[in-house]
Write a structure and sequence with these properties.
Layout lengths: L2 H84 L1
Length: 87
């Protein structure tokens, strides 16, 4: 083999070794990133579940309160009108 071919083989093997090391490092970072994404999505899912349960609880409480307030308003109007008629 000629000296030029040997130098070319050495340069190519060094370049391939560098790319292999960079590829391994990139793969490790991608695995870590996917684990972080998994944690974030799990946290977001838990937060959504908590918000959903809070909203459903609030809707159960506010519906009867709204109806009671609505009916109470009409009862007060009726009582005021009946007091005016009595005077």
């Amino acid at each position: 083999m000629s000296p030029a071919a040997e130098i070319l083989v050495i340069i190519l093997s060094v370049a391939l070794a560098i790319f292999l090391i960079l590829g391994i490092i990139l793969l490790v970072y991608l695995i870590r990133l996917s684990a972080e994404i998994r944690k974030v999505t799990e946290t977001a899912r838990k937060t959504f579940d908590h918000v959903e349960s809070a909203v459903s609880g609030v809707s159960r409480i506010t519906s009867p309160l709204f109806i009671a307030q609505f009916v109470g308003g009409y009862v007060n109007k009726f009582l005021k009108k009946s007091k005016k008629k009595g005077e």
